[in-house]
Amino acid sequence: MSYLKFDKNQLINLEQSLSKEVLRTNQAGAYNCTTLAGCNTRKQHGLLVIPIAGMDNKPHVLLSSLDETVIQHGAPFNLGLHRYQGGVYSPNGHKYMRQFDVETVPVTTYRVGGVILTKEKIFITHENRILIRYTLKEAHSPTTLQFQPFLAFRESNSLVQENDQINKEVLPCENGVKTCLYEGFPNLYMQFSKPVEWVDNPNWYKNIEYTKDMERGVPYTEDLWVPGYFRLPIAKGESIIFSAGVTEVDPSELDGMYKAELKLRTPRSSFFNCLKNSAKQFYLKDGDKMYILSGYPWGVVLARNTFMALPGLTLAIDHKTDYETAMRTALDALRAFMDKGETEGRIKGIDLPDIPLWAVWSIQQYAKYYGNDAARKLFGKDIAAILNYILADGHPNLKVNPANGMVTTEGADKAVSWMNANIDGHPVIPRTGYLVEFNALWYNALMFGAAVFAESKSKAADVRRWTNTAELIKPAFVDTFLNDYGYLYDYVNGTYTDLQVRPNMAVAIGLDYSPLDRRQRRRVLDVVTRELLTPKGLRTLSPRSYGYRPFYLGSPREREEALHQGPARPWLIGFYADAYLRVFGMSGVSYIDRMLIGFEDEMSQGCIASLSQLYDANPPFMGRGAISHATNVANVLLTLRTLKKLNV
C-alpha cells in the first residue's frame, strides 16, 4: 500500500481536498503547486511558475492551470475545477476523481462512466518544463481529450484583470502552439507527444477567486486568459504527454525525457523519504553556485535560513557535495560583507548580527558528520575569520563586552533576530541588548573554533584568545540569563530582564557547547517541556505569558502581531531533542521518537510530504504561513538522523 494515497471520499469532499496542497520544484527556482482537487486556492498556485532572470528573478505564473475534458459520444465531461465569484465552483471535475497517489509522482485517477484516465505530473530538473502524462486505462468507445490552458503571465504575488494590453497571438509549433501575453515574458510552448488540433476560442474567464488569499485579507480575485483549446483522440492503453516550457522541445523526445526523470525520483514511501524529497525542493542551483530557498510559495534566499537549514537539507540526506557548494556560496557572501561591507546580492539579510554565529553552527554540523579535520580543511579560514571579526567588533551591530565576553546588539528599532515581525516599521518584539540565543551561539562558536584548531601551532594564539573569551562568557551567561524560576530570560537590556517564556532558550540548552551545566540544562528543559512543547514544535510564547496569541489568523496586521506570540515552530524541535538526549541519554530516545509522530502526521496534511512555516499553538495545531518551510524540514531531518544513529 502506498504511504501517501487519498481515496474518492477524501477527494470529492472539497473541505478536505482543498486544504491539502501538492508542491513540486525543479531545483532552479521554478515550481508547480495546487490542491489535491486541482483547484487553485492561492494566487501563487500554478502549473508552471518560473523565475524570470531578465525581469526581476521573482517567480511568475505563466500557466495557471490546464482543464482536461473527456469526450465520448459527443458528450463532454470537464475534469477541471475553479472557484468563481460568490463561492461558485465550476465545472466540478473533482466529482470524477477516484484516487490520488503521491508516492513517486502525483498521479490522479479519474473515472467518467466507462472511462478510466490517469494523469501524472513531473517537473524536469533544472529546466523550466513540466510534463503531464495521460494514460487511458479503460474505455469502451472512441475517446477524445480536450485541453484548455488558463494563462496568467504575472508575478506570483500579484493578480491580473481583463485588459487590452495582452498579445492575443497564438502561433503554431511542432505538435502544439506558443504564445506570450506581455512584453518581457518568455514564450510559453505547449506541445504534445503526438499531433494535436488547436482550436482558437479566445475568452477571459473572469472573477476567479482564491480562498486562501481571501482568508489572509489580501486581494483574491482575478481574470485569466484562455486563448483556445487542444483536441486529440486517445486509444485504450495509450499514453500521451503534454509539455509546457519556455523553450520548444522535440515531441519525439518527451517519452524518453519523462522516463529518465522518473528514475531520479526517491519514492515517498516513509516519513524520512517524504522529508528527503521535500529537502531537495529548496535547492536553487545557478551555475556553479547553489542557494537555499526559505520556503514556498513565497520564499526567497535568506542568509539566516540558509545557515540554519543547510545541514538538515543536505548532510542529513547524504548530499555532502551540495552542502559544500551551498556553504561556499553563502560564506563568500558573508566574507564580502565582513571584508567590504557588501550586502547586494541574491542572499538577503547577510548583514544581520546573528548571521556569522549561525554560519559557524552550520559548519559545526558538517564537522559532526565528517570530522573536525575535514571542516578545518574546507572552512577553517572562514571559522577563524568570523571569530576574529566578531572579537574585533567588526560587525556594526554585534559588539563584544570586554568585561564578560558576551555580545550585545541593538534591536529596539529594527528586528535583528529570527523573531522579526514588524508593524509600521517597528519590531513587535524589540529584542535588544543581550539576546539569549546570540550569546549561546557565540559561546558555542568559540568553543568549536578552539576544538577545530586545537592541534594547530599557527593558530595557538587565536585558540587561547577564543578559549579565554569563552571562559569569561560561561559564568556571565548564567548570571545574566538563568533566573530563580529555572528558565532563561529571553533578552536582557541594562537593568531590564524580559520575563516572557520563549523558545530561544532551547537553542542554549541544545548546542554542543552550552554555557550551562547538565543540572541547569535539566531545569530549563523542564520549563520548555511544560510550557512550550506541542506536537508541532515549540511555542514562540508560553500560554502563561502576557500577550499569548495561539492562532495565526486574521488580517495581515493581526497575523504579524501573532507571528511570534504563540504559534509553534517545528525547527526548534531539533535543539529541544538534542537537549533532551544530552540530559537523559539513551533513555530519552524513545521519547523523542514518539514526539516526532506529530510531524509524521503532517505528511498527509497541509502541503503533502512537507512541513508548514508555523502551526497554531493550541489544538488542532493547524499549519499556517508558507506551506513548505526549509528550516522546519531541515531540523526534523537532523533529528531523524540522530535517532537513526542512536538506534543502530
Q: Structural class of the secondary elements?
A: alpha+beta
Shape: elongated
Give the oligomer, counting copies of the same chain as homo and different chains as hetero: single chain
Radius of gyration, in angstroms, nearest whole number: 26 Å
Poorly predicted regions: none
Helix percent reads 25-40%
Enumerate the strands of the largest sheet in spatial order, edge to edge or round the barrel: 1-9-10-11-12-19-16-15-14
Biggest sheet overview: 9 strands, antiparallel
Count of DSSP-assigned helices: 18
| Average pLDDT rating | 96
What's the number of extended β-strand segments? 35
For the termini, the CA-CA separation is: 27 Å
Question: What this model shows, in words?
Answer:
It is a single chain. By secondary structure, the chain is of the alpha+beta class. Helix content is 33%, strand content 26%. The protein has 18 helices and 35 strands. The longest helix has 22 residues, at 460-481. The model has no long low-confidence stretch (mean pLDDT 96).
List the helices and strands and how they pair.
Elements: E1 5-7, H1 8-12, H2 14-17, E2 21-25, E3 31-35, E4 46-51, E5 59-72, E6 75-78, E7 82-84, E8 88-90, E9 97-101, E10 107-112, E11 115-123, E12 129-138, E13 143-155, E14 170-173, E15 176-179, E16 188-192, E17 197-209, H3 211-215, E18 221-234, E19 239-245, H4 254-263, H5 271-280, E20 283-286, E21 289-292, E22 295-296, H6 303-314, H7 320-340, H8 355-370, H9 372-391, E23 399-400, E24 407-408, E25 422-423, E26 426-427, E27 434-435, H10 436-452, H11 460-481, E28 491-493, E29 496-497, H12 504-510, H13 518-531, E30 533-534, E31 537-539, H14 556-562, E32 568-569, H15 572-584, H16 589-595, H17 597-600, E33 614-615, E34 623-624, E35 628-629, H18 630-647
Antiparallel strand pairs: 1-9, 2-3, 3-4, 4-5, 5-6, 5-13, 7-8, 9-10, 10-11, 11-12, 12-19, 13-18, 14-15, 15-16, 16-19, 17-18, 20-21, 22-35, 23-24, 25-26, 27-28, 28-29, 30-31, 31-32, 33-34
Helix pairs in contact: 5-18, 6-7, 6-8, 6-18, 7-8, 7-9, 8-9, 8-10, 9-10, 10-11, 10-12, 12-15, 13-15, 15-18
